[in-house]
Amino acid sequence: QVQLVESGGGLVQPGGSLRLSCATSGRVFSISKMGWYRQAPGKERELVATISSGRITNYADFVKGRFTISRDNAKNTVYLQMTSLKPEDTAVYYCNAFLRVAIDSSYSNYWGQGTQVTVSS
Q: What is the pLDDT of residues 61-74, one digit of tens each?
């Protein structure tokens, strides 16, 4: 059973910083792309950032220059360093991993349960 567990969310003032972590546990053979998505109340889930196994990164325009995604392949963990946070960054942030559980299995998407980030004074 593969699990993705996020941590690091919370309440922060505008202009502040937070670091999210997402650890993958269970039977994992290899992980391809990992990423962060977010969903604000009344809105659809949207991509924030992704990182490939070779550490090639991709960011949504609204976080470029403010957020940094990274990963530790040895720990099967992905991080999201968020700086200069704005009230509009308030959302539930979800971790995603595209992985396979065995050498002869296909890649599938897995999601974490989400962590709340609230930016407010």
A: 999 999 999 999 99
Query: 87 to each of 54, 90, 120, how far by Cα in Å?
Result: 32, 6, 6
Spatial distance between the Cα atoms of 45 and 40, rounded to a whole number of angstroms: 7
Rounded Cα distance between 63 and 36, Å, is 12
Mean pLDDT of the chain: 96
Q: Give DSSP secondary structure letters for the chain.
A: --EEEEE--EEE-TT--EEEEEEEESS-SEEEEEEEEEE-TTS--EEEEEE-TT--EEE-GGGTTTEEEEEETTTTEEEEEE-S--GGG-EEEEEEEEEESSTTSPPEEEE---EEEEE--
Give the integer Cα–Cα distance in Å for 97 and 10: 22
